[in-house]
Amino acid sequence: MLTIFGRKTGGYCDGISRRGFLKIGGLAFGSSLVTLPDILRAEEAGRGSGTGGPSKRHKAVINIFLAGGPPHQDMWDLKPEAPEEIRGEFKPIETNVPGIFVGESFPRLASMMDRAALIRSVVGATGRHDLYQCNAGYKFDDQQAIGGWPSLGSFVSMMQGPVDPAVPPFVGLAETTSHVPWSDPGAAGFLGPAYGPFKPDGSALQNMTLNGITADRLADRRSLLRSFDQLRSEVDASGALEGVDSATALAFDVLSSSKLVDALDLSREDPRLRDRYGDGKPYNYQYDGAPTCNEQLLMARRLVEAGVRCVSLSYGRWDSHGANFDLVRDHGSKLDQCLSALIEDLEARGMLDDTVVIAWGEFGRTPKVNSQAGRDHWPQVGAAWVAGGGLKTGQVIGATNRLGEQAVERPVHFKEVLATLYHSLGIDVSRDTVLDPAGRPQYPVDMPPIRELI
């Protein structure tokens, strides 16, 4: 959490304690408190070790989690010829690409199928009710001995660094959910907390503004802190403190810049555009999951525009053991509105080719409808919707059998999907590596991108 105020325990005449002042630049990353200078030094070290700095063209990914397991048979892979207890209540509708059909809850997305691709054969799910594989591609147990496998956003933070020093490269918008794993924005794993997501919750937003502190007063404190660092550097014969001053300067740049705060302020948007996205209310079927907060997709676009490389968010609660069709009518129509608005918005701003957008969940749902008009967990196969990023769109990848039970054409593993996202960001998963805590080079994923999309 960016903060300039400590507890008013005395010290300076304005009520800011010496301890609080010296903690200027803290950020709340996950459950660990790390100072922003630490993060910036880590990123600078990563770039200095040959991983490369930010590219001239700002590539980005918006990772939308349909947490709980969205029913592929009612959204992207309808089976109208299957028995009634399999096909459910929805009818397929034509898209603007001949021969491709989607569920009737998605008319707006159907009208822009040429700008998207469907993956109907996502396999490799472990069946865990979390977003770990959507974040990292790997199983939850992989590399836990050294801290766990880093998420997409964390790898991107480490390998590419920030586009702008005042804007974190990885932002997690997911609101806290009662089932905590559904609000996981992606962990840093063995890369360490410096590369975790920035989560702009209420307290973080409040402390990113200089309430009562002028730019001149901040500059005075910046000067004082620099003198402390220079004093320590003079007595440090090892040179270990080299670079502290520059990293701390970047921390002040973040604190004094309005870019991140402005990006998170939706009141700056044209009300007509906000209406196009909608707000997703009322939040039906939320239970222990995320709300259908349409405005987070608009916020994601604003963050990418400000310089964020990876935005993750959790949209809705798709665990439809009962009332599956009512839930899809509610969640689906809202998703259709905001996701189509996002694609149109990115395209209008010339950002779509540089921004890949994906919407998917941790697994699919049972072909057979249960006695509560619901569908249960089905890790055997799932689906994903993807657009932008310079990918080859207007097509369907893979297919399931006539009952939607299993992939019978072109199975696509989670890792292949992640590899495709990395490719869109300019990261070559067959070549680019980072070092784990044991000093061993590690590739972000060990499978190639989806060849049909790149």
TrEMBL record:
Superkingdom of source: Bacteria
InterPro entries: Alkaline_phosphatase_core_sf, DUF1501
Gene3D superfamilies linked: Alkaline Phosphatase, subunit A
Pfam families the record matches: DUF1501
Protein name per its UniProtKB record: DUF1501 domain-containing protein
Species of origin: Tautonia plasticadhaerens
